[in-house]
Structure formats: C-alpha cells, structure tokens
Amino acid sequence: MPEPVSIHQNDKVLFLREEEDHAQNQLEADYEKCLNELAKTISGKNRNVSGDISWEDQFKTLHEYVDELNLRHFLETQSNAIHVAGTKGKGSTCAFCESVLLENKVKNVGLFTSPHLVDVRERFRINGEPVGKREFIEAFWWTKTTIEKELKMELPAYFRFLFLLGLKIFKDARTECLILEVGLGGRLDATNCVREPKVVAVTSLGLDHVEVLGDTIEKIAWEKAGIFKNKTRAFTSPQVPEAMKSLERKKEEVGCELVVARQIDLDGNDEDGNNTGGEEKVELGLSGPHQRINASLAVELVKEWARKTKHRGILAELEKEREKKPEAKLVLPDTFRRGLEKTRWPGREQIVRDEHSKNLTFYLDGAHTEESMRTCAEWFSAHVNAKRKKDGQHDNCYNDGKQLSSGMCHNVFLFNCMEERSPKVLLSASVDVLKSKNVRIDTAMFCPPDSSALGLVKVEDDKKNLEWQEACATTWREIEKVKGLNTSNFSNSSSSSSISSSSGQTDVRASVAGAISALRRKADLVAPKRVDVLVAGSLYLVGDILRQLKKLGVK
C-alpha cells in the first residue's frame, strides 16, 4: 500500500504551487512592462515628415546600431539569411520556407515577420514557435539597456528596434537559418541591413503603401528590388511586365542573377507537365490557388539556400530525387512535400469554428489590397458554394439582378480597413467576385480593431473610429446600389448602428467583442441555419477576432 501523505508533505506541495504561481505572475508583470516600454518607440511611417530624420538617414544609422551591438558577425556569417520582399504572399512564402527547412532537419530555424496578430512574440519564431516570454524579456532589456546606457544612443523607432531585438533573440538561439520578411518596401527596410544573405526573393507585386513606396507598380518594384545584392541569386514569382522591367533593371545595376521561380501544380508537376518526383501529389498546408505561387517560390529559395550553405541533408535529398526522375526539370523530394503540407500561417485564409455557437464559422483573411481582396472573396465563395451544393441548393442566388434567399446559410461580411486605404476599391473588388460567384451577402458589418491590444497604435478616439466605420458602411451601400449586392436587416440592437437605405441595411459595431456577441446572438436565433462570416480588410481586425476567440495558440 502507498504510504500516507503527511501534513508536512501537503504543505510542501502547496508551498511549491504558490511559488510557481508567484513566478508566473512575476513573469507576466515583467512582460507587460516590456510591452509598455516598447509602445514608447511607436512612430509614424511617413518617410519625409518635416522636422524628422529621413528614412534614408534612419536606415544608415541602423547599420551603426547593428555594428555597435556586435550583431553584425551573427547577421552576416552565422544567420545564413533568406531575405523576402513583396506585396502579396511574402509572409506565406516565408512560412513555407520555414516548414520545409524544419522538415529537412535544419537546426534552429528563425523567422522574423510582421505584423503580429495578437502577441508581439509572433514576430520572432524559432523552430515554428514564438519565442518564450522569458527569452523575450531578457533580450529586450539587454537591447534597450545596451543602446541607452552603454552606447548612449536613442532607441530607434518601433520596427527598427524590433529588428535589433530579433537579431539578439536569434543570435542567442543559435539559429542555423534566419528567414527575414521585409516589413515595408525593401530598399530602406530595417531587414535590408543584411549585406550577405544566401538568397533573396520578391513575391507577387501590386499597388500598396503608395504614399511611401510610389504610386506606380514600376516604382514599387524598384523599392522591393532594393534587397538585391551583388552575386546573390534573386528569385521572383511571375510578375506583370511593368514590375518585371523594374526588377530586371535593378538586377543589371546590382550585378546579380534574377530567376523566375518554376511553378508546380497541385499534382506535383512542374509548369511543363513533368512529374517532380515523390510518391504523392502536393497538398499545401495553406489554402487558395495563389498559394501554389508562394510554395513554388519557397521551394526555389530552400534549394538555393542549401546550395549556398552546402547543407548535406537537403542536397542529398535533391540528388536522390534527380536519380529517380532524371527528366524532371523541377525536383521535389518528399521532405519538401511534407514541409509544404505542414505549413501553417494564422490569419491567412484561416477557418475557425466558434465554440460558443456551433453553427457560427469565421473565414479570416488579412487581405488589404485590391487584388488580395479578390483572392480572398474567391476563397470564401468556393467554401460557400461547396456547402450550398452539399445542401442541394440551386447555384444561382440571383433572379433578374435581385438576390434570392441564401438558404441554409446566412453570410456576413465583417470589414475594416485603415484610413489610408480606399474602402471603395477594396469593397468593390470583393463584391465583383462575390456576385460573379453567385454568393449572397446577407449582412455587411463594420467595426474598428482593438489596435491597442496589438501594441501598434492606441485607440483613444472612439468617436473618430466609429465615424470611419460609418464612412465604410456608407461606401458599401453606395456599391450596393450600383452592383446590386443587397444586404438584409441584421439587428436593431442598441449597441449597433443600423442605417437603412433603399438597398438594404448595414451594421456598425463599436468593438470586436461587440461584433462577435452580435454574431453569436444571430447564430443562436437562426439555428440550425449556418452563419458564415468573412473577415477581411485588415490583419489587425483578423488578429483581434482570433484573440477574442482564443484561437491563436500563443502561450
């Protein structure tokens, strides 16, 4: 028989638990203090604000920080960096790279990305997981104290400070490969402090951040190509001619090779129809046909990285596949396939089923450009139509231009965008696709993100935020009148602002929590009818939805 537990032993167990609770509470308090200090570094992103130091000068100064903090040797000789710029898909491409490298047993893979959805530590992933709070705290105070106390220098602005902090975190973790996602642009981005990356890439390009990068695709491409380095091979996804021309011009100026990544299809063939090896077709971990483009680029980046670093394991896998499929122009070992299948990237074409209301499902995508909004709408439409087909419903939701009932599903479009963007452009792009795919939107809902929770900007003027949501709602109603994508009555709750018009009704909510509560009430009311919610227009809004649903999984 087991010996009885003495009172003394029980007291000891209780004491240890209290000690653990105290230590955890102290860790949380220390972390919160770091976040408060970090928030003080937040500034605007305009390059030439009167009285401020220009972006060019700030970029030059950042090199001094890297050198003075003794991070240069790690960055240039130990990090073995993969550097990725672009308008669309650069985060997904980086995530594919990370997953494939880990599947090929590369030790300590670091991933620096932006923005974060819920927790700033998401920006610093090591082997697929956000850096721990304790490690973050230690690196934060080391970086801040060294700059201010030892170097007697001012802290750089938010993103630049995070880049320096990231280098410290990844250095301490002894990363074998550091994947750097450009924050904004390329030429003057903090990540471009790396002078000798192993390989660089530019993902699909489009018009975005025009107030900073330029108002044409040529100008934007030129800024993105600013990460090109002499004698470092650069890869790119297929581009429109105007963008490609700028990339080619930069290639000639820098003196590097520029390669358009060969595309693989989901059956594992290259663009010429040749099988790429392996036993099964490619099942991407990220949904959407455009992810094939990102995955293809990631495959080329990992191969080039392995060639430059002479990574025996990856090179052996590639050689083994070449022997099996000597005629294939694009070789894809099974380790690559498994890596592509296991890739996860929160907030991008992510489906989350609500645990409170079982008939409520969120379709989340951080799309915030015209083209990405179209892609997002196509993704949502595909799921809606698949459900409709399963229910045995007619595919056509329109009769003489008028919407019919959406049957067993109530579709909601929850939208927000930053004021620097055009809601008319973003919403019109979505509506065009939704109508072409015969997808009815029953409710259009608008609410501001809880940006303060992201540590990016403080939400101080509720009235101004609601005015912007009202403006977006007005834009939606104007688009309704022209395109005929009528919405229906959603709620007359006092917590919302429901504005009637000849073409329907929109719903404005003051907070993300309020929006989710309203959606849950609607789901309970219409059950067993489904409520499917497309959330788009802002990564910050997507992050807040995930935070409220407690679905991001950051500990």
UniProtKB/TrEMBL annotation:
Binding residues for ATP: 348, 365
GO biological process, one term: one-carbon metabolic process
Catalytic class of the enzyme: ligase
UniProt signal peptide: none
Reactions performed catalytically: (6S)-5,6,7,8-tetrahydrofolyl-(gamma-L-Glu)(n) + L-glutamate + ATP = (6S)-5,6,7,8-tetrahydrofolyl-(gamma-L-Glu)(n+1) + ADP + phosphate + H(+)
Cofactors required: a monovalent cation
Keywords attached to this entry: ATP-binding, Cytoplasm, Ligase, Magnesium, Membrane, Metal-binding, Mitochondrion, Mitochondrion inner membrane, Nucleotide-binding, One-carbon metabolism
UniProt EC number: 6.3.2.17
Domain named Mur ligase central: residues: 84-300
Molecular function terms, GO-annotated: ATP binding; metal ion binding; tetrahydrofolylpolyglutamate synthase activity
Cellular component terms (Gene Ontology): cytosol; mitochondrial inner membrane; mitochondrial matrix
Family: Belongs to the folylpolyglutamate synthase family.
Protein name as it appears in the record: Folylpolyglutamate synthase
